[in-house]
Amino acid sequence: MNWTKDMQALDRAHHLHPFTDFKALGEEGSRIVTHADGIYIFDSEGHRILDGMAGLWCVNLGYGRQALVDAATRQLQQLPYYNNFFKTTHVPAVTLADTLCRLAPASVNHVFFTGSGSEANDTVLRMVRRYWALEGQPDKQWIIARENAYHGSTVAGMSLGGMAPMHAQGGPLVPGITHIAQPYWFGEGRDQSPEDFGRACAAALEERILELGEENVAAFIAEPVQGAGGAIIPPDSYWPAVKEILARYDILLVVDEVICGFGRLGEWFGSQHYGLEPDLMPIAKGMSSGYLPIGGVMVGDRVADTLIDTGGEFFHGFTYSGHPACAAVALKNLEIMQAAGVVQRVRDDVGPYLAQRWSALADHPLVGEARSLGLIGALELVADKATGARFDKSLGVGNLCRDISFANGLVMRSVGDSMIISPPLTMTRDQIDELVSLARQALDETARHLNVAIHKEQTA
Ligand SMILES: *Cc1c(COP(=O)(O)O)cnc(C)c1O
């Protein structure tokens, strides 16, 4: 019997995968990833694949880090579990909290631990409303988020998120959340200059605040660069204008750092790249390089002071808030990043190098735009380079390119017809060359397939 086929059969029989058409996957069979090293994953058929997504935007230090394994092992031996409820604490949680606050923007000095980014955003929702209630403004309840944002998969996470297909499943959303336009210039703004479009998207925030009444608006939540929505880098005019509007109406800023945090944009946090002073920052993913699950909400002084001084007990927490082994791994992860200057390297060396190599893909006939910032990037696939017209959705060009890329040895993800990368932050220049050349191969092969498909359509 074939081991891979056996495993696939068991997978099909019992395993419901996240964000997956269960039936379609069952028919195709899943790829079984067996081990990984550095920036490469390996599957059960012996393929070596460059992981251009760092797992799910999280394996920032790459695979095979013995120091992270050792940190987990030591902690599991000494104290595998204890909670932080009921007036107890433990060294990994305390030390991690201290380290995180040293790295965060100056006005952010507290952290509430969770097990994931989704739990972090659930915590955000409760903290924001609790804050305004304690401030004597209980009507400040509305949270303004953005279309096509991703803030997780729990009920609060997906309600804050702006993913229409998610909203369409699973019943009523959390009330009091509203969505405005995203600053996605290539997708939605090409009739204007990027700068004008960025300002228009910020103006949409002000309009919504005025519609709802500023006395009813609690917070605005956004990713610095949208990740799952398609590696969407806002025009430079966007964040300064948003900042100004939030200050004018006294509305809290929640910066979802789950992807942009921990070096992705070349600063410890995306907030620092854009000069933001967040009131709350959900974090997760790169925090532990994905070796163990951990997340949290970093809380700015304004909110923390009120919660601490006047809040009394906050009835909220998770069994695994600040789990000792996860915290120990996160701490070691941050120590390694600091010692190796990973973040500065993204900002000063590999980020600019990727920008130079990646943007060269814009000359490809399928590519309407090639953008990147730090180590996150996207390619916009188009049917007509001159007009930027998209392919017919039914062709599924993004998924086609993703499948080809995977088969050729590179994980790129597709979001519609955008191809996304978010590789480990430890990439060398040579590895970036390899990634870009694999991406070009995938584009070439996709173009060959499409010529055939388009030709068939025309002759049919
Ligand atoms: C992944 C993600 C989340 C959710 O994190 P999970 O750990 O999957 O729950 C939230 N916000 C952003 C920006 C994310 O990318």
TrEMBL record:
Q: What are the UniProt keywords, alphabetically?
A: Aminotransferase, Pyridoxal phosphate, Transferase
InterPro entries the UniProt entry points to: Aminotrans_3, Aminotrans_3_PPA_site, PyrdxlP-dep_Trfase, PyrdxlP-dep_Trfase_major, PyrdxlP-dep_Trfase_small
Gene Ontology molecular function: pyridoxal phosphate binding; transaminase activity
* Classification via CDD domains: OAT_like
| Cofactor(s) needed | pyridoxal 5'-phosphate
Q: Does the keyword Transferase apply?
A: yes
GO cellular component terms? cytosol
Q: Which PROSITE patterns match?
A: AA_TRANSFER_CLASS_3
SUPFAM superfamilies per record: PLP-dependent transferases (SSF53383)
Fetch the PANTHER family from UniProt.
AMINOTRANSFERASE, AMINOTRANSFERASE CLASS-III
Protein family membership: Belongs to the class-III pyridoxal-phosphate-dependent aminotransferase family.
What name does UniProt use for this protein?
Putrescine aminotransferase
* The organism of origin for this protein: Aidingimonas halophila
